[in-house]
Write a structure and sequence with these properties.
With 288 residues, the chain is of the alpha/beta class. The protein contains 9 helices and 9 strands. α1 crosses α6 and α4 crosses α5.
């Protein structure tokens, strides 16, 4: 297996979180895709890719609890790949409990972990069972509020033409704490201590991308000191994440409503990351 030039992405996560949509999007990007592959067959699959003589240079596999007892061998299969010096990425799909329950109600399908029990019980069991695997994931997508087209865009941003597993990309998400913390965030930054434009009538209807709001937030001495310390922390930790093999990091920046302060700081953070040659995607979740 050594020396094989193959970008391998293993897609897993919660039942109903959108793994099928993700796989279809990967296929649109030119990945050779296989759904519901038992872990014991992953090594054989890689061997077949090697025999393609370069015709298959990137592949995606969905491996989840539908394979039943076979799924318990996934950790061993991943260890075998690592022992052979082979690299892979894990894309983990998740969603909130209420969203998953509603999706199962709409589809009228049984949950694979609790086929004879209630759906919520199956979801809770699945969360417990997949906790360690989620911790190993290189990339995590929370599909709770994503439409099909937004899911495709997420996949395209992560694995599109600029995809390079040896290079870390960073997603910066602005959000409002009153709407909840993004589930897929690796790091949360709370900027509710910054001066709030919401209380100024002329700035209230604007957002952090508008120049008057941006200037109000970023020119404040408290913000300037925070930005200096925050960016120094990023300069220190990002190379360490990359050294540990993390290829994608999600930074959530939150204020009360997600319209003013978090948006302005997120835009400033994206500028900083791009000047330091990180691939950066910005998402203002609650700007509206």
């Amino acid at each position: 297996m050594k020396g094989i030039s193959l970008n391998l992405v293993i897609i897993t996560g919660f039942s109903g979180a959108g793994k099928t949509q993700a796989l279809q999007s990967m296929e649109d990007l030119g990945f050779f895709c296989v759904d519901n592959l038992p872990p014991t067959l992953i090594e054989k699959f890689v061997d077949l890719c090697a025999q393609s003589q370069g015709k298959i240079d990137k592949a995606a596999i969905v491996c989840d609890l539908r394979v039943g007892d076979f799924f318990s061998s996934l950790n061993q299969a991943l260890n075998d790949l690592e022992s052979a010096g082979y690299k892979y990425e894990i894309l983990f799909l998740e969603a909130s409990d209420d969203v998953l329950v509603n999706r199962y109600k709409e589809s009228r399908r049984r949950h694979p972990v609790s086929p004879k029990g209630n759906v919520l019980e199956g979801i809770h069991k699945e969360r417990e069972f997949l906790a360690d695997l989620r911790g190993k994931a290189n990339k995590i997508i929370d599909s709770s509020d994503l439409t099909v087209s937004q899911m495709k865009e997420k996949i395209r941003n992560l694995f599109g033409k600029d995809y390079d597993p040896a290079r870390m990309s960073v997603s910066v998400v602005s959000f409002g704490f009153k709407y909840g913390i993004p589930l897929d965030a690796d790091t949360i930054i709370d900027v509710r201590f910054l001066p709030n434009p919401y209380y100024l009538e002329e700035l209230k209807p604007m957002n952090g991308k508008d120049t008057p709001v941006r200037d109000f937030v970023l020119s404040n001495p408290t913000t300037e000191e925070f930005i200096k310390r925050f960016f120094a922390m990023l300069e220190y930790i990002l190379p360490l994440y990359l050294k540990e093999g993390k290829s994608h990091l999600v930074i959530g920046i939150g204020c009360t409503g997600g319209q003013h302060r978090s948006v302005a700081v997120t835009e400033k953070t994206a500028e900083f990351l791009r000047t330091h040659h990180y691939s950066c995607v910005v998402n203002h979740r609650d700007i509206q």
